[in-house]
Specification:
With about 90 residues, the chain is α+β, with helices and mostly antiparallel strands. About 45% of the residues lie in helices and about 15% in strands. It is built from 4 helices and 3 strands. The protein has helices spanning about 15-25, 30-35, 55-60, 70-80, and strands at about 15, 45, 50. It has a 3-stranded antiparallel β-sheet. A hairpin with a 2-residue loop joins strand 2 and strand 3 (about 50).
């Protein structure tokens, strides 16, 4: 974990997808749909997708859920694969 010159612990400003899933205690599908629907903002740096700490804090404070339609779409895409094409 990053530290300052005074050895104070400083929390990261950005988290990886794996970190966000661990912190929020959600799975990959839920994280995917939260980002895809814009309910969780991400930052892309090169090929990496990072989640700002303020976004995770906002979700923890306010909470969020997927609508019934979003859950149905998530289930459908899971059975068809991520491209939406039939197997």
């Amino acid at each position: 974990m990053p530290t300052t010159h005074l050895n104070e612990i400083v929390a990261p400003r950005m988290y990886t997808r794996a970190d966000a899933m661990r912190i929020l205690r959600i799975g990959e599908t839920s994280l995917h749909w939260l980002t895809r629907t814009g309910k969780l903002q991400t930052v892309r740096i090169g090929g990496r997708v990072l989640i700002p700490a303020r976004e995770i804090e906002r979700l923890c404070r306010k909470g969020i859920s997927l609508s019934k339609a979003e859950k149905t779409a998530a289930r459908a895409s899971k059975t068809m694969g991520t491209t939406g094409a039939m197997p």
